[in-house]
Amino acid sequence: MALTPFPAIRDHVLLPWASSLSEVDGLLRSRLTDALFTEVLDQVPDAWLLPEPGFSKPAEKRRGYVTYLSRRLSAASFVEEALRARAELI
User: Fold this and answer.
1) Is 57 strand, coil or helix?
2) Any idea where the domains of the chain sit in the sequence?
3) Secondary structure E strands in the chain
4) What is the pTM of this model?
5) What are 55's strand-pairing partners?
């Protein structure tokens, strides 16, 4: 799931004004690290991280989110999908 395109991006309300997607991606991608994801997720209350199959404890769920976000970030298809959708829009 983390590596799949995001076709719903074509409906994003700000897409018509997103003229610097590639440039911003290049500048900000390096700032989004596992350490940052972990720091942010450590601030999520345990009560919000309800058990589900494969993630019975909040710490497991946090690690799962870090893994998902890291994999999602590595998927070039995410930005490519936004660029393609914007090109069709304008």
Assistant:
1) coil
2) 7-89
3) none
4) 0.78
5) 52
